Protein backbone atom coordinates (compact mmCIF):
# COMPACT_ATOMS: atom_id res chain seq x y z
CA UNK A 1 0.00 0.00 0.00
CA UNK A 2 1.37 3.42 -0.90
CA UNK A 3 1.58 5.92 1.95
CA UNK A 4 -1.35 8.25 2.58
CA UNK A 5 -0.93 11.96 3.35
CA UNK A 6 -0.37 11.40 7.03
CA UNK A 7 2.12 8.59 6.50
CA UNK A 8 4.05 10.80 4.07
CA UNK A 9 4.10 13.55 6.69
CA UNK A 10 5.21 11.07 9.33
CA UNK A 11 8.05 9.90 7.11
CA UNK A 12 9.05 13.51 6.38
CA UNK A 13 9.20 14.22 10.12
CA UNK A 14 12.06 11.70 10.33
CA UNK A 15 14.14 14.20 8.32
CA UNK A 16 14.12 16.60 11.25
CA UNK A 17 16.69 16.54 14.02
CA UNK A 18 16.79 17.97 17.50
CA UNK A 19 17.55 21.67 17.60
CA UNK A 20 16.59 22.42 14.00
CA UNK A 21 14.86 25.59 12.83
CA UNK A 22 12.52 24.40 10.09
CA UNK A 23 10.07 25.86 7.59
CA UNK A 24 7.06 23.78 6.55
CA UNK A 25 5.15 24.58 3.37
CA UNK A 26 1.41 24.49 2.79
CA UNK A 27 -0.52 21.20 2.42
CA UNK A 28 1.01 17.86 3.41
CA UNK A 29 4.16 19.60 4.78
CA UNK A 30 1.99 21.36 7.38
CA UNK A 31 1.01 17.92 8.73
CA UNK A 32 4.67 17.14 9.48
CA UNK A 33 4.33 19.20 12.66
CA UNK A 34 2.02 16.48 14.04
CA UNK A 35 4.81 13.90 13.93
CA UNK A 36 7.91 15.59 15.38
CA UNK A 37 7.32 13.85 18.73
CA UNK A 38 9.80 14.76 21.43
CA UNK A 39 12.26 16.40 19.06
CA UNK A 40 13.09 20.01 19.86
CA UNK A 41 12.06 21.65 16.58
CA UNK A 42 11.37 25.36 16.11
CA UNK A 43 9.02 26.09 13.23
CA UNK A 44 9.43 29.26 11.22
CA UNK A 45 6.54 30.98 9.52
CA UNK A 46 8.04 33.17 6.82
CA UNK A 47 5.60 36.04 7.26
CA UNK A 48 7.58 36.78 10.42
CA UNK A 49 7.58 34.29 13.29
CA UNK A 50 9.77 31.68 14.92
CA UNK A 51 8.21 29.19 17.30
CA UNK A 52 4.88 28.54 15.62
CA UNK A 53 2.33 26.81 17.81
CA UNK A 54 -0.76 24.71 16.95
CA UNK A 55 -4.12 25.99 15.72
CA UNK A 56 -6.04 27.92 18.40
CA UNK A 57 -9.07 26.59 20.24
CA UNK A 58 -12.36 27.85 18.90
CA UNK A 59 -13.02 31.39 20.09
CA UNK A 60 -9.32 32.07 20.68
CA UNK A 61 -8.43 32.94 17.07
CA UNK A 62 -6.39 36.14 16.74
CA UNK A 63 -6.49 37.96 13.38
CA UNK A 64 -2.98 39.30 14.11
CA UNK A 65 -1.57 35.79 14.43
CA UNK A 66 -1.48 33.75 11.25
CA UNK A 67 0.95 31.44 9.46
CA UNK A 68 2.25 31.68 5.91
CA UNK A 69 -0.87 29.84 4.72
CA UNK A 70 -2.96 32.63 6.33
CA UNK A 71 -4.33 30.15 8.88
CA UNK A 72 -4.90 31.22 12.46
CA UNK A 73 -2.25 29.76 14.78
CA UNK A 74 -0.90 30.27 18.30
CA UNK A 75 2.38 31.30 19.89
CA UNK A 76 4.63 29.31 22.21
CA UNK A 77 6.82 30.36 25.10
CA UNK A 78 9.81 30.52 22.74
CA UNK A 79 8.05 32.55 20.04
CA UNK A 80 9.56 35.65 18.49
CA UNK A 81 8.09 37.98 15.87
CA UNK A 82 9.86 40.06 13.24
CA UNK A 83 9.20 41.80 9.95
CA UNK A 84 9.25 40.00 6.60
CA UNK A 85 12.60 41.49 5.51
CA UNK A 86 14.23 40.07 8.66
CA UNK A 87 12.39 36.79 8.14
CA UNK A 88 13.77 36.33 4.65
CA UNK A 89 17.16 37.50 5.83
CA UNK A 90 17.31 34.41 8.03
CA UNK A 91 16.04 32.24 5.17
CA UNK A 92 18.43 33.60 2.54
CA UNK A 93 21.21 33.74 5.10
CA UNK A 94 21.10 29.98 5.61
CA UNK A 95 19.93 30.07 9.24
CA UNK A 96 16.97 27.78 8.58
CA UNK A 97 18.19 24.16 8.56
CA UNK A 98 15.50 22.66 6.37
CA UNK A 99 12.36 23.33 4.39
CA UNK A 100 9.72 20.73 3.62
CA UNK A 101 7.67 21.80 0.62
CA UNK A 102 5.01 20.53 -1.74
CA UNK A 103 5.61 20.39 -5.50
CA UNK A 104 3.90 20.10 -8.85
CA UNK A 105 7.02 18.64 -10.52
CA UNK A 106 10.58 17.71 -9.52
CA UNK A 107 13.37 16.81 -11.94
CA UNK A 108 16.19 14.31 -11.53
CA UNK A 109 18.57 17.29 -11.29
CA UNK A 110 16.70 18.61 -8.28
CA UNK A 111 14.82 21.32 -10.17
CA UNK A 112 11.54 22.21 -8.49
CA UNK A 113 8.32 23.60 -9.99
CA UNK A 114 5.51 24.52 -7.65
CA UNK A 115 4.25 28.01 -8.37
CA UNK A 116 2.33 28.27 -11.60
CA UNK A 117 0.78 26.54 -14.60
CA UNK A 118 1.01 29.03 -17.49
CA UNK A 119 -2.39 30.18 -18.73
CA UNK A 120 -4.27 28.15 -16.14
CA UNK A 121 -3.25 28.59 -12.57
CA UNK A 122 -1.38 31.63 -11.34
CA UNK A 123 -0.77 31.49 -7.64
CA UNK A 124 2.68 32.93 -7.25
CA UNK A 125 5.83 31.67 -5.62
CA UNK A 126 5.28 33.32 -2.25
CA UNK A 127 8.37 32.54 -0.23
CA UNK A 128 9.21 29.27 -2.00
CA UNK A 129 11.93 30.69 -4.28
CA UNK A 130 13.70 32.29 -1.31
CA UNK A 131 13.37 29.13 0.78
CA UNK A 132 14.82 26.77 -1.81
CA UNK A 133 17.66 29.20 -2.52
CA UNK A 134 18.57 29.73 1.09
CA UNK A 135 17.80 26.90 3.49
CA UNK A 136 20.23 24.10 4.32
CA UNK A 137 18.21 21.19 3.01
CA UNK A 138 15.13 21.02 0.79
CA UNK A 139 12.78 18.05 1.12
CA UNK A 140 9.82 17.77 -1.23
CA UNK A 141 6.69 15.89 -0.19
CA UNK A 142 4.17 15.11 -2.94
CA UNK A 143 2.23 12.38 -4.70
CA UNK A 144 4.41 10.44 -7.11
CA UNK A 145 1.94 10.87 -9.99
CA UNK A 146 -0.75 13.41 -10.84
CA UNK A 147 -4.45 12.66 -11.07
CA UNK A 148 -4.02 11.45 -14.65
CA UNK A 149 -1.41 8.94 -13.48
CA UNK A 150 1.50 10.84 -15.08
CA UNK A 151 4.80 10.95 -13.20
CA UNK A 152 5.59 14.16 -11.30
CA UNK A 153 9.21 13.00 -10.99
CA UNK A 154 10.65 13.96 -14.36
CA UNK A 155 13.85 14.15 -16.39
CA UNK A 156 13.11 17.85 -16.90
CA UNK A 157 10.37 19.96 -15.37
CA UNK A 158 7.81 21.22 -17.90
CA UNK A 159 6.44 24.00 -15.65
CA UNK A 160 8.20 27.26 -14.72
CA UNK A 161 10.85 26.57 -12.10
CA UNK A 162 10.84 27.66 -8.49
CA UNK A 163 14.52 26.75 -8.18
CA UNK A 164 17.21 25.03 -10.20
CA UNK A 165 19.09 22.11 -8.64
CA UNK A 166 17.69 22.83 -5.18
CA UNK A 167 15.91 19.64 -4.06
CA UNK A 168 17.85 17.19 -1.85
CA UNK A 169 15.23 14.54 -1.15
CA UNK A 170 11.78 13.60 -2.50
CA UNK A 171 9.22 11.84 -0.33
CA UNK A 172 6.22 10.53 -2.27
CA UNK A 173 3.38 8.15 -1.57
CA UNK A 174 5.59 5.41 -3.07
CA UNK A 175 8.84 6.01 -1.20
CA UNK A 176 11.89 8.17 -0.66
CA UNK A 177 14.32 9.27 -3.38
CA UNK A 178 17.54 11.27 -3.16
CA UNK A 179 18.80 13.60 -5.86
CA UNK A 180 22.36 12.59 -6.81
CA UNK A 181 24.72 13.77 -9.55
CA UNK A 182 23.90 10.70 -11.63
CA UNK A 183 20.14 10.64 -11.15
CA UNK A 184 17.64 9.67 -8.50
CA UNK A 185 18.54 7.08 -5.92
CA UNK A 186 15.79 5.08 -4.19
CA UNK A 187 16.38 5.30 -0.45
CA UNK A 188 13.24 3.59 0.76
CA UNK A 189 10.04 2.06 -0.57
CA UNK A 190 6.66 2.46 1.13
CA UNK A 191 5.44 -0.77 2.68
CA UNK A 192 4.25 -3.14 -0.04
CA UNK A 193 5.72 -0.95 -2.81
CA UNK A 194 8.63 -2.41 -4.79
CA UNK A 195 11.57 -0.72 -6.51
CA UNK A 196 9.97 -1.80 -9.78
CA UNK A 197 6.71 -0.03 -8.84
CA UNK A 198 8.67 3.19 -8.23
CA UNK A 199 10.69 2.85 -11.44
CA UNK A 200 7.47 2.26 -13.38
CA UNK A 201 5.84 5.38 -11.91
CA UNK A 202 8.91 7.56 -12.51
CA UNK A 203 9.83 9.28 -15.76
CA UNK A 204 13.20 10.42 -14.38
CA UNK A 205 16.38 8.36 -14.43
CA UNK A 206 16.74 6.11 -11.40
CA UNK A 207 20.22 4.85 -10.56
CA UNK B 1 5.54 68.50 13.60
CA UNK B 2 1.89 67.61 13.24
CA UNK B 3 1.53 63.99 12.22
CA UNK B 4 -1.90 63.08 13.54
CA UNK B 5 -4.81 63.49 11.10
CA UNK B 6 -8.53 63.15 11.69
CA UNK B 7 -9.34 60.60 9.00
CA UNK B 8 -7.77 58.44 6.31
CA UNK B 9 -8.99 60.82 3.57
CA UNK B 10 -7.50 63.83 5.34
CA UNK B 11 -4.22 61.98 5.85
CA UNK B 12 -3.98 61.22 2.11
CA UNK B 13 -4.96 64.75 1.04
CA UNK B 14 -2.44 66.23 -1.39
CA UNK B 15 -0.41 63.03 -1.65
CA UNK B 16 -2.23 61.26 -4.47
CA UNK B 17 -1.77 61.41 -8.22
CA UNK B 18 -2.69 59.04 -11.04
CA UNK B 19 0.03 56.59 -12.05
CA UNK B 20 1.81 56.69 -8.70
CA UNK B 21 3.70 53.84 -7.04
CA UNK B 22 2.30 52.80 -3.66
CA UNK B 23 3.93 50.32 -1.27
CA UNK B 24 1.43 48.64 1.05
CA UNK B 25 2.08 46.68 4.22
CA UNK B 26 0.27 43.51 5.23
CA UNK B 27 0.34 39.80 4.50
CA UNK B 28 -2.88 38.32 3.23
CA UNK B 29 -5.48 40.22 5.24
CA UNK B 30 -3.24 40.41 8.31
CA UNK B 31 -1.90 43.84 9.22
CA UNK B 32 -3.28 45.56 6.12
CA UNK B 33 -3.97 49.31 6.05
CA UNK B 34 -7.68 48.74 5.53
CA UNK B 35 -8.78 52.32 6.31
CA UNK B 36 -6.28 53.88 3.92
CA UNK B 37 -7.25 51.39 1.20
CA UNK B 38 -10.90 52.44 1.61
CA UNK B 39 -9.83 56.08 1.34
CA UNK B 40 -7.91 55.32 -1.86
CA UNK B 41 -11.07 53.74 -3.32
CA UNK B 42 -13.01 56.88 -2.39
CA UNK B 43 -10.38 59.21 -3.84
CA UNK B 44 -10.72 57.69 -7.31
CA UNK B 45 -6.95 57.90 -7.92
CA UNK B 46 -6.13 55.53 -10.78
CA UNK B 47 -3.46 53.77 -12.85
CA UNK B 48 -1.77 52.79 -9.63
CA UNK B 49 1.19 50.47 -9.32
CA UNK B 50 0.98 48.75 -5.97
CA UNK B 51 3.81 46.83 -4.33
CA UNK B 52 2.19 44.47 -1.84
CA UNK B 53 2.77 40.81 -1.08
CA UNK B 54 -0.87 39.95 -1.80
CA UNK B 55 -3.87 41.77 -3.16
CA UNK B 56 -6.37 41.02 -0.43
CA UNK B 57 -9.48 39.03 -1.30
CA UNK B 58 -12.22 39.97 -3.75
CA UNK B 59 -14.13 42.25 -1.38
CA UNK B 60 -11.56 43.26 1.23
CA UNK B 61 -8.18 44.95 1.31
CA UNK B 62 -6.52 45.73 -2.00
CA UNK B 63 -9.13 43.56 -3.71
CA UNK B 64 -11.42 46.61 -3.47
CA UNK B 65 -9.00 48.68 -5.56
CA UNK B 66 -8.84 45.87 -8.12
CA UNK B 67 -12.64 45.72 -8.31
CA UNK B 68 -12.75 49.45 -9.14
CA UNK B 69 -9.92 49.02 -11.70
CA UNK B 70 -7.80 51.68 -9.99
CA UNK B 71 -4.76 49.40 -10.09
CA UNK B 72 -2.82 49.11 -13.33
CA UNK B 73 -0.01 46.93 -12.03
CA UNK B 74 0.71 44.79 -8.98
CA UNK B 75 4.12 43.79 -7.64
CA UNK B 76 3.33 40.72 -5.54
CA UNK B 77 4.50 37.27 -4.58
CA UNK B 78 1.20 35.45 -4.17
CA UNK B 79 -2.24 36.04 -5.64
CA UNK B 80 -3.78 32.60 -5.07
CA UNK B 81 -6.44 33.91 -2.71
CA UNK B 82 -8.00 36.34 -5.13
CA UNK B 83 -10.19 35.14 -8.00
CA UNK B 84 -10.74 38.63 -9.48
CA UNK B 85 -6.99 39.26 -9.45
CA UNK B 86 -6.34 36.06 -11.38
CA UNK B 87 -9.14 36.82 -13.81
CA UNK B 88 -7.86 40.36 -14.56
CA UNK B 89 -4.32 39.06 -14.93
CA UNK B 90 -5.13 36.12 -17.19
CA UNK B 91 -7.29 38.35 -19.41
CA UNK B 92 -4.46 40.87 -19.73
CA UNK B 93 -6.32 43.72 -17.97
CA UNK B 94 -3.86 43.85 -15.09
CA UNK B 95 -0.08 43.86 -15.17
CA UNK B 96 1.57 41.65 -12.63
CA UNK B 97 5.22 41.60 -11.70
CA UNK B 98 5.87 38.50 -9.65
CA UNK B 99 8.47 39.02 -6.95
CA UNK B 100 9.61 36.26 -4.60
CA UNK B 101 8.34 37.20 -1.15
CA UNK B 102 11.78 37.74 0.34
CA UNK B 103 12.95 39.67 -2.69
CA UNK B 104 9.92 41.96 -2.42
CA UNK B 105 10.54 42.57 1.28
CA UNK B 106 14.22 43.24 0.69
CA UNK B 107 13.51 45.51 -2.29
CA UNK B 108 11.35 47.64 0.02
CA UNK B 109 13.88 47.58 2.85
CA UNK B 110 16.72 48.40 0.46
CA UNK B 111 14.81 51.29 -1.12
CA UNK B 112 14.16 52.71 2.33
CA UNK B 113 17.80 52.26 3.29
CA UNK B 114 19.11 54.08 0.22
CA UNK B 115 20.31 50.92 -1.54
CA UNK B 116 19.27 50.99 -5.22
CA UNK B 117 20.18 47.38 -5.94
CA UNK B 118 21.38 44.14 -4.37
CA UNK B 119 22.31 40.63 -5.47
CA UNK B 120 20.34 37.59 -4.33
CA UNK B 121 20.42 33.85 -5.03
CA UNK B 122 16.63 33.78 -4.97
CA UNK B 123 15.17 33.05 -8.39
CA UNK B 124 18.44 32.32 -10.17
CA UNK B 125 17.74 29.91 -13.06
CA UNK B 126 14.00 30.70 -13.05
CA UNK B 127 11.91 33.00 -15.23
CA UNK B 128 12.06 35.82 -12.70
CA UNK B 129 15.80 36.06 -13.42
CA UNK B 130 15.18 36.78 -17.12
CA UNK B 131 16.77 40.06 -18.16
CA UNK B 132 18.47 40.57 -14.80
CA UNK B 133 22.22 40.89 -14.37
CA UNK B 134 23.92 37.76 -13.01
CA UNK B 135 27.05 37.98 -10.91
CA UNK B 136 29.11 35.22 -9.32
CA UNK B 137 30.21 35.48 -5.69
CA UNK B 138 32.20 32.66 -4.05
CA UNK B 139 31.31 30.34 -6.93
CA UNK B 140 27.55 30.89 -6.69
CA UNK B 141 25.29 32.82 -9.04
CA UNK B 142 23.24 35.78 -7.87
CA UNK B 143 20.83 38.08 -9.68
CA UNK B 144 20.55 41.84 -9.40
CA UNK B 145 17.32 43.12 -7.87
CA UNK B 146 16.44 46.80 -7.50
CA UNK B 147 15.33 48.69 -4.43
CA UNK B 148 11.77 50.03 -4.44
CA UNK B 149 11.35 53.78 -4.00
CA UNK B 150 7.63 54.30 -3.58
CA UNK B 151 5.82 57.63 -3.94
CA UNK B 152 3.67 56.66 -0.98
CA UNK B 153 3.68 53.95 1.66
CA UNK B 154 0.46 52.91 3.40
CA UNK B 155 0.94 50.77 6.49
CA UNK B 156 -0.83 49.56 9.61
CA UNK B 157 0.57 49.28 13.14
CA UNK B 158 -0.95 48.41 16.49
CA UNK B 159 0.03 51.49 18.48
CA UNK B 160 2.00 54.63 17.78
CA UNK B 161 2.78 57.76 19.73
CA UNK B 162 2.01 61.14 18.21
CA UNK B 163 5.57 61.37 16.84
CA UNK B 164 5.01 58.15 14.84
CA UNK B 165 7.08 55.73 16.93
CA UNK B 166 5.22 52.50 16.24
CA UNK B 167 4.69 49.04 17.67
CA UNK B 168 3.22 46.15 15.74
CA UNK B 169 1.39 43.16 17.12
CA UNK B 170 2.39 39.52 16.44
CA UNK B 171 2.49 38.53 12.76
CA UNK B 172 0.67 41.72 11.74
CA UNK B 173 4.14 43.30 11.55
CA UNK B 174 5.08 41.41 8.32
CA UNK B 175 5.66 43.83 5.42
CA UNK B 176 4.69 46.98 7.31
CA UNK B 177 8.15 48.15 8.45
CA UNK B 178 9.90 47.64 5.08
CA UNK B 179 6.93 49.16 3.22
CA UNK B 180 6.97 52.18 5.55
CA UNK B 181 10.69 52.64 4.99
CA UNK B 182 10.52 52.71 1.18
CA UNK B 183 7.88 55.44 0.87
CA UNK B 184 8.86 59.05 0.12
CA UNK B 185 5.86 59.73 2.31
CA UNK B 186 4.45 57.17 4.72
CA UNK B 187 0.91 57.26 6.07
CA UNK B 188 0.21 54.92 8.96
CA UNK B 189 -3.06 53.79 10.52
CA UNK B 190 -3.10 52.41 14.04
CA UNK B 191 -5.57 51.03 16.53
CA UNK B 192 -4.42 53.46 19.20
CA UNK B 193 -2.45 56.71 19.25
CA UNK B 194 -0.76 57.46 22.57
CA UNK B 195 1.22 60.38 24.00
CA UNK B 196 5.02 60.44 23.64
CA UNK B 197 6.63 58.73 26.61
CA UNK B 198 3.93 56.10 26.85
CA UNK B 199 5.74 53.50 24.76
CA UNK B 200 9.05 52.09 26.01
CA UNK B 201 11.73 53.47 23.63
CA UNK B 202 13.43 50.06 23.72
CA UNK B 203 10.28 48.42 22.39
CA UNK B 204 9.71 50.61 19.32
CA UNK B 205 9.63 48.47 16.14
CA UNK B 206 9.58 51.38 13.69
CA UNK B 207 10.99 54.78 14.65
CA UNK B 208 8.78 57.79 13.92
CA UNK B 209 11.24 59.16 11.36
CA UNK B 210 9.66 56.80 8.83
CA UNK B 211 6.10 57.92 9.59
CA UNK B 212 4.82 61.23 8.22
CA UNK B 213 1.09 61.05 8.78
CA UNK B 214 -0.87 59.06 11.31
CA UNK B 215 -4.49 58.15 11.89
CA UNK B 216 -6.35 56.13 14.49
CA UNK B 217 -9.41 54.08 13.59
CA UNK B 218 -11.52 50.98 14.04
CA UNK B 219 -10.34 47.95 12.13
CA UNK B 220 -12.41 45.03 10.93
CA UNK B 221 -9.31 42.76 10.97
CA UNK B 222 -10.97 40.05 8.92
CA UNK B 223 -9.57 36.50 9.26
CA UNK B 224 -8.80 34.83 5.94
CA UNK B 225 -8.50 31.18 7.04
CA UNK B 226 -10.09 30.46 10.38
CA UNK B 227 -8.47 27.25 11.58
CA UNK B 228 -9.06 25.80 15.04
CA UNK B 229 -8.44 22.61 16.98
CA UNK B 230 -10.84 20.82 19.26
CA UNK B 231 -10.35 20.85 23.02
CA UNK B 232 -9.45 17.34 24.08
CA UNK B 233 -12.15 15.85 26.25
CA UNK B 234 -10.79 14.10 29.29
Polypeptide structure, described:
The complex is a heterodimer of chains A (207) and B (234). In chain A, helix 3 packs parallel to helix 4 (128-134). In chain A, the strands form 3 sheets. Chain A has a 9-stranded mixed β-sheet, with helices on both faces. Chain A has 207 residues and is an alpha/beta fold. In chain A, 17% of the residues lie in helices and 26% in strands. With 234 residues, chain B is an alpha/beta fold. Helices cover 20% and strands 27% of the residues of chain B. Chain B is built from 6 helices and 11 strands. In chain B, strands 1, 2, 3, 4, 8, 9, 10 and 11 form an 8-stranded mixed β-sheet that branches. A 3-stranded antiparallel β-sheet of chain B has the order 5-7-6. Chain B is globular and about 50 Å long. The interface between A and B is large, with 53 and 58 residues.
How many strand units of chain A? 14
CATH architecture label name of chain B: 3-Layer(aba) Sandwich
- Radius of gyration of chain A, in Å, reads 17 Å
Q: Helix and strand succession of chain B?
A: HEHEHEHEHEEEEEHEE
Strand content of chain B: 25-35%
Text of the CATH class of chain B: Alpha Beta
Shape category of chain A: globular
Let me know the largest β-sheet of chain B: 8 strands, mixed
Structural class of chain A: alpha/beta
Count of domain modules of chain B = 1
Strand content of chain A: 25-35%
| Annotated CATH topology of chain B | Glutaconate Coenzyme A-transferase
**From the helix content, strand content and strand pairing of chain B, which structural class follows?**
alpha/beta
**Greatest interface and its participating residue counts:** A-B, 53 and 58 residues
Q: What does the largest sheet of chain A look like? A: 9 strands, mixed
On the 0 to 100 scale, the average pLDDT of chain A is 96
Proportion of helical residues of chain A: 10-25%
Give unreliable regions of chain B as ranges: none
Mean pLDDT across residues of chain B = 96
Summed up, the helix count of chain B is 6
Residues in helices of chain B, as a percent range: 10-25%
Amino acid sequence: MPWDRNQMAERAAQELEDGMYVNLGIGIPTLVANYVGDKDITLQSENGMLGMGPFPFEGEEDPDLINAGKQTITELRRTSYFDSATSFGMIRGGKIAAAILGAMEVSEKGDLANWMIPGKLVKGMGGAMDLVAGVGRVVVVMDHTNKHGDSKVLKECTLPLTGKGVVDRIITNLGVLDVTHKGLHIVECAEGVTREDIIKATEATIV
Amino acid sequence: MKKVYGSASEALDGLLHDGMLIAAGGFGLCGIPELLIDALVESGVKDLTVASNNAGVDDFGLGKLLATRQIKKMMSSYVGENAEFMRQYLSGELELEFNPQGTLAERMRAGGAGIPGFYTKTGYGTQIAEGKEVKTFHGENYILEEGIFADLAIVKAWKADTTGNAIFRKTARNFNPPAAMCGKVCVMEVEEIVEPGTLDPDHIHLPGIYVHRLIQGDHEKRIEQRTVRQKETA
